[in-house]
Amino acid sequence: MGEPGNGFVWPVRVYWEDTDAGGIVFYANYLKFFERARTEWLRELGIEQQRLRDTLNGMFVVTDTLLKYRQPARLDDFLLVTARLTEAGRASLTIAQSAYRCAAGTHTAANVPRDPHAQGNTLLCEGSIRIGWVDASTLRPHRIPDTILQALQRP
Amino acid sequence: MGEPGNGFVWPVRVYWEDTDAGGIVFYANYLKFFERARTEWLRELGIEQQRLRDTLNGMFVVTDTLLKYRQPARLDDFLLVTARLTEAGRASLTIAQSAYRCAAGTHTAANVPRDPHAQGNTLLCEGSIRIGWVDASTLRPHRIPDTILQALQRP
Amino acid sequence: MGEPGNGFVWPVRVYWEDTDAGGIVFYANYLKFFERARTEWLRELGIEQQRLRDTLNGMFVVTDTLLKYRQPARLDDFLLVTARLTEAGRASLTIAQSAYRCAAGTHTAANVPRDPHAQGNTLLCEGSIRIGWVDASTLRPHRIPDTILQALQRP
Amino acid sequence: MGEPGNGFVWPVRVYWEDTDAGGIVFYANYLKFFERARTEWLRELGIEQQRLRDTLNGMFVVTDTLLKYRQPARLDDFLLVTARLTEAGRASLTIAQSAYRCAAGTHTAANVPRDPHAQGNTLLCEGSIRIGWVDASTLRPHRIPDTILQALQRP
Fold this sequence. Notes:
Four copies of one chain form a homotetramer.
Chain A: E1 8-13, H1 29-44, H2 49-56, E2 58-69, E3 78-88, E4 92-101, E5 122-135, H3 146-153
Antiparallel strand pairs in A: 1-3, 2-5, 3-4, 4-5
């Protein structure tokens, strides 16, 4: 679901499991939404995390998170979550991410919206996630495998 | 995503958030997967839970859960979750639900599998969920509104 | 925190993370509360699960859950969760568990209540959990190690 | 559990629910651990959040989170989580928080460790959480009630 300028976009529906007694999405759960989008972005690039672990004995771990909460989401809201690589180091990647609420009534099963900046949409949460590559057994940092770096550089 | 005989079917991807240190999906999370399928089944019938609450001041609460775990799911697995109404009382509904793992390599973004019983698929978890209709303020049981019962009876 | 007749008792406080937009504890989270109590019960018997895995390469997995929800819990509620072994097979254990809400004002930091059946307490959720012992690598069922069975039989 | 210089300290045990398939605590769950500590810190100051909501129709919502992950925690680890007020504005509070793993074997039921900086302990995660006071119905920002600000200023 790539969009020029937005990077990768992934849809997320808000269920009961995501909400808290304030009637809104529990703030920690945006980290889950952001990770789903990162995982699908990597999958689109041909990178399956379970397979990496089985074949390379390595995995990504999150090392830094910075989130700003702008507006709350509620049960049944339909969100678009973005992921855009902002920095690729030898052992870590930094990804900018945002969650937008889609205006009500703009989608059906046959017509899922993909443009987070469409009219009527609202920015709910934005932030930056840094992930590092580690050996899955020792959890020590390692250089990101070339196959992953090459997949990231593909246009 | 209705399938004759299966009832409603909803796809669920397994992410890091769903797993535990045993390397498998944390068993409590099947209740989340089952609820996502129930929610989408109700939505397909025209029933939006947030709207029901705003307009009727009522909501469904889970009163009984019975789950049997057959096989574990792992990171990146692609599941199909079913929901089928087995009993509709005045104040409660009983829904039979199952989760199946799709055989690897059977799907692409353009071709999402829908048949939980397709060859190579594996039954992971099955069970029964009973939900009751309550007043959202008092949480006391009430008769299920006719609009909901009628939607459920539509062929 | 053993109590004659009740089996093991473990206190659980309700936080935001445990609640949903219904204003009550999300039903799936009672499985978490019950597991905390089972873990602490095993720990009291001298059984540390991470150590078992490191030394015996085995672990318990949940195979069956049956829960009945009687009354809802809310933010800040203080619960007592019980765990009592009801059946010990060769490869599985069955544990009866309940969660009670303590009457308000009955406890302080220095005086944590321990009797789930004290006057004013309310039964919220009860059920039965079956766990099986599996090889941690293959996830195949195995006989429960004697050291565990012996610890369970100690008076 | 106040400690001079550390601010408030709250113990957290790592259970299966907290871990992921990497064998470590899922990073989003530190936000839960931090919130438990903030909640208990407020409770120690006489501030019960459910009561505030019932009486003042207001609640705290998280507006900013910044977390750095230093070392992973594993199943059965015993953590100490700190909370220290670093800034009190008219409508928001900023709290510095950390999680430390206690060295193995340093505690029993009768002797819970309280010093996060004790020898052998390890800093796992640290960060800063900003919370704002909002009207519980409109979710709009409001001045923090004087009763709360006064409780925070008590020595």
